Every structure is written in structure tokens, then in C-alpha cells.
Amino acid sequence: MAETLELEIFGVPQSNYVWTTRIALGEKGVAYKFTPVRPHSPEVDAIHPFGKIPVLRHSDVALYESKAICTYIDRQFEGKPLIPRGAYGGALCEQWISVINTEIDPLLMRQYLVGYFFSGKPDGSPDRAKIDAVLPKMPKHFELLDRAVGKTGFLVGDNFSLADCFLVPILFYMSKLPESKAMMDKRRNLNAYLSNHLKRKSVADSTPPLPAR
Ligand SMILES: N[C@@H](CCC(=O)N[C@@H](CS)C(=O)NCC(=O)O)C(=O)O
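^ Those are the sequences you sent over. The predicted structure of the assembly is below.
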């Protein structure tokens, strides 16, 4: 087994993708060093070709992209698999991560949340036009997720998987903003899912302070 203390994650703790990698490390019980640096900082640019966070260093390994980082963590360290090893379970996990990264995150985080926290307005106030434009598209996403976690309380099978590591941070932020919170409040499964998993040690230990609004 590799020397765990050498592993280092770089990125701001508020990033949902950075948080995902930290949840994965917590689930595997891996000790690591966390270096809070912004996108495009020298440490990040040295690894990620587009300067995005998170990035990882572990001995002579350097990696970028949260999914790749988490796959490495899952395979490199002992403990319960985060990506189910069976063909179907593993594929379902990949399916959910893919849909989170290509549909859910782009709408809920890059458009809706960015409209609140990174509006680009001189006074930092929310970009109402941007927010209002995405609201009609959001209920479908929450409905899909509510149905998905309704049966077992997890996205895949009966266990907390890497797919949940990707989803929980996004839902945390959605529970803090008014319109998304109202949409989530109507969905019992999703609310129970979030409140259960926010109590997991891996999640609680890495929950970031909210960005200033
Ligand atoms: N596909 C990347 C996305 C990472 C990402 O978008 N990180 C954001 C912070 S949440 C970032 O670094 N943004 C800065 C930028 O896009 O320049 C991954 O999964 O790691």
C-alpha cells in the first residue's frame, strides 16, 4: 500500500469538485494534505492544462480532473470500493457521475449558483436575469434525482458510492439558495438523502464555509 501522508489535494474548499475528492478520501480513510489554492494558481497550472481545481499530487503521481483523481484514490487505497467492482454496478456509478458532470453541474452550479455568487456585477449582487433564465429547467433535474435516491437512499445500489460523492456537494449548495431550496423542499427523498449524507464523517469533516454573497 502506498504511503498515504504524501497525498496532497490543491483547490479551494468551496469548490464542489474539490469537496468531492475530499469526501472520497474520507470514505477510504486516507490521510492527506489539503492546500487551499485558487484555480490558475501556480500549483494548479503546473498540473491542470486549463488551470482548474482540484489537482492531486501523490509521490511522483500528478493528476487533474476530479473523476480521474477519485478513480485513482479508489484503486490505490484499500477499503470499501467507491466504484462498485461489478460490471453493472460500476457502469451505473459511471452513468450517474457522467450525468451529474454533463447535465446537473452545468445547470445548477455553473449557471444558477454562479448567478448568485459570481455574478460579475460591480456590487456583487446576483444576476437576476441569469438566475431567472435557468429556473424553469431546474425542476426536471430535482425530480430525476428524487426518484433515483427514493428506493435505497443512494444513487447506486445499497451503498455510498463515488456517484454520491459528486452529488452531495451540489445538493448542499442547492439547499442554501432560495429557489432551489423551495424545489428541494417538495422532494422528500432528496431531502432525506441530503440530511443523512451531510452527517457522514467524510462529508462533515470537509464541509466548507459558504462563499460570501
Ligand atoms: N471537469 C473538472 C471541473 C473542475 C472545475 O470546473 N473546477 C472549477 C471550480 S468548481 C474551476 O476550477 N473553475 C475555474 C475555471 O473554470 O477557470 C473536474 O471534474 O475536475
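Residues 87-117 form the longest helix (31 residues). The two ends are 43 Å apart (CA to CA).

Shout if you want it in another format.
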